[in-house]
Amino acid sequence: MQIDLSVFQNAIAFPLAAMTTFAPPDLRLSAGSAAQDTGEVLPNLNDGFSGAAPDAGAYEIGAALPVYGPR
């Protein structure tokens, strides 16, 4: 599957130069995008998906973002 940057909720700037510094982008998918429900089930990795299949992205649409670091 080939997708473009329009599948993300927020605009993602495509770097024009290889060494450009950007703030970390928000890589959550937009609901209804071409990447929704198109992923493969990976046991013990994306078991908690909603919909027909996992989303083809770093985060499942509508799921809470993971918390990293000390709590």
What's the SSE blueprint?
Elements (H helix, E strand, L loop, with lengths): L71
Share in β-strands: under 5%
Point out poorly predicted stretches: none
C-alpha geometry: globular
The structural class is: little secondary structure
Radius of gyration: 14 Å
The helix content is under 10%
Largest sheet: none
Taking the alpha carbons of the first and last residues, their distance comes to: 38 Å
- Tally of contiguous helical segments: 0
Number of strands: 0
Summarize the structure.
This protein is low in regular secondary structure and 71 residues long. Helix content is 0%, strand content 0%.
How is this structure best described in words?
It is a single chain. With 71 residues, the chain is largely without helices or strands. 0% of the residues lie in helices and 0% in strands. The radius of gyration is 14 Å and the shape is globular. The termini are far apart.
Name the features:
little secondary structure, 71 residues, single chain
